[in-house]
Amino acid sequence: MNEDPDVNEAEEAKLDAIVRHGPSGAIALAGISTAIVIGMWFIFYFAVFLPRGVIQ
């Protein structure tokens, strides 16, 4: 394990810079995934439910 304080401070500074930017990639992935699921739901709705007509 590296016990050099200068190296530890440099690593912590790099980590702080990364964390400061936030989880933008994860949020983008979640947004894209949600859009795909909603799009698939609309395709299923318009392709399956509407052609069958009103259920009585």
From TrEMBL:
Transmembrane segments in this chain: where? 26-50
Mind telling me what this protein is named?
Putative membrane protein
Give the UniProt keywords, A-Z.
Membrane, Transmembrane, Transmembrane helix
Q: Which organism is it from?
A: Caballeronia insecticola
